[in-house]
Specification:
The complex is a heterodimer of chains A (289) and B (334).
Chain A (H helix, E strand, L loop, with lengths): L4 H32 L6 H19 L1 H27 L4 H23 L15 E4 L2 E4 H23 L1 H11 L1 H6 L4 H23 L9 H16 L4 H21 L4 H15 L10
Antiparallel strand pairs in A: 1-2
Helix pairs in contact in A: 1-5, 1-6, 1-8, 1-9, 1-10, 2-3, 2-4, 2-8, 2-9, 3-8, 5-6, 6-8, 9-10, 10-11
Chain B lengths: L5 H20 L2 H27 L6 H17 L5 H23 L4 H21 L9 E2 L16 H24 L1 H11 L1 H6 L4 H27 L1 E2 L6 H14 L5 H20 L3 H14 L4 H21 L13
Helix pairs in contact in B: 1-6, 2-6, 2-9, 2-10, 2-11, 3-4, 3-5, 3-9, 4-9, 6-7, 6-9, 7-9, 10-11, 10-13, 11-12, 11-13
The chains are: A mainly alpha (289), B mainly alpha (334).
Chain lengths: 289, 334
Amino acid sequence: MTTDPGFWLLQTLNALQLSMLLFLLSIGLTVIFGLMHFVNLAHGALYAAGAYVAASVSAVAGFWAGLVLAPLAVAVIGVLLYGGLIRRMRRSGPMAQVLVTFGLIFVALDLTRLIWGDIALASAMPPLLEGRLSVLGIDYPLYRLFVIGLGLVVFAALAFVLGRTQIGAMIRAGVDNDAMAACLGINVERLFFIVFCLGCALAGLAGAVAAPLLSVSPDMGLQILIPTLIVIVIGGLGSLQGAIAGSLVYGFVQTFGAVLAPGLASVLIYGLLAAILVIRPTGLFPAKG
Amino acid sequence: MFRHTFLRYAVLALLAAAALLRALTAGYFGLEILAEILILAILVLALDMVAGFGGMVSLCHGALMGLGAYAYGVLCVHAGLAPLPALAGAIALTGAVAWAIGAICARAHGIFFIMATLAFGQMAYSWVFETPLLGGDDGLGGIPRPDLSLLGIDLSDSRSFVLFCLAATALAYGAAVLVLRSGLGRSLGGVMHNEQRMRALGLTVWRVKADVFGLSGMLAGLAGALAAMQVMYISPGLLAWTTSGEALVVVILGGLGTLVGPLVGAAAFVTLKHGLSGVTSHWHLVVGLILIAVVMSRANGLFGWLEARWGARLDRRLADATREDTPREATNDA
């Protein structure tokens, strides 16, 4: 089996698809952390909210409407969170932030159960992407290729915005030294608000994309939280390269570990994380030297 | 470093009296809840030792507790050891693992320390989950309770078992106080406040952190072994990171760095959980809202709030009453 090139291609595509899903989630979290040193454990809950909105909307108005509306809805939740909680927690330590957002996880978990019930929802794939595509001799579901493509598009767009535009330069300046950026006349607080909402929208997008792949259940946010945190800690906080590198490391180790060494797979990724934390305590590509 | 104030003694005496009264009068269900409170109390004491007095916010204490439970179970069921030696072995093993984790993570700070401990905790969780010897997903059953018939105590009776847990909790509290008052505990306080200065003074910082983490792990192992004895069955769910998260929530709700506060928190948390789950299935919602409110109020939990409000005044009045020559300020720096 392992000598068959089709096997390797198939697993590579699987790994890429997992990586891209994690990338959509981790990029928002990592930039929020890098810019404002804010630890938002409730990011997974936003992802779950996105999945639920997408599943509900797509049942009425089709998949594409859900894909557009879910990020918007989650961004609105982000605005409310920012105004109600986050802005007041900005000056308190990481410990308080971890705890408040941990409390938010509890609240979000029960709110989704109250609104949508305990039973997992299924979300239909769009008819356009239901088929399979033959890639170099193997059949691969079109929808998963779409996920990979979407992740790459988002990565390219973010790389362009962060690297080539003025607002990107402002964000990078803010991550590097927020006090200095503020002295140069950049409204760091407003910048954070924008980045926070964008990060929420991306989490919602990830949820909407994941909804047809996984079943939509109340604890899906809790399940994805740990992988996302692993990604940003492996990659290094605050950087786009870190988020993509961490996502790829996680996706490939997890996927190939599961097929090549099933007994070790889940221990492997945590061992890798521990090793990286010991050797490079700030991750592979930290935003600050 | 840890000091007892009048308020701390008072709350401690109140808690002990209440626990003793419940242990002697409660019915079967009340006794089970009390045992749950006492086991959680030992775990949060262990967590407060490292988080409140060393600034090491650990998300692997749930896993350490689970490890203690599994070590006890395996030593009893597979190795055929008698329960009491198995208990000692479980505590020693958990302590050793915790020491190693503490030594490896000693360089990391803040969010990285939290993540590193989380990684080790999840590693233990996945390992247990996938090891057939430990029963994997099915868990491990048939775990015995210690045989204390020599002392005329039958631990299969739930009232005796609760009293046994109460004694263990008292011992754990005493041990935590002793450690925090020793030279090691004082060094740890120094490390928390200014690590560089302690290093400049010639202290091996990582050793201090690892030693306290190991001692704290021994307490977590004790809690785990008691939990295994209580339900006579262990499932891997005990090691999941949400157990550690809940323990951290209890420490915060009670009052970080006060030792007495987490005990209050444990009693309040378990009582609230069972009280609310009778009324609504959405008790997480209530606990979450309370947690957010407590953290945003900037008080140091329930006990911390009480201490800030009454502690200083009580101590001053007591000092006046006993006519001490030097009026001393009440200390809340512990």
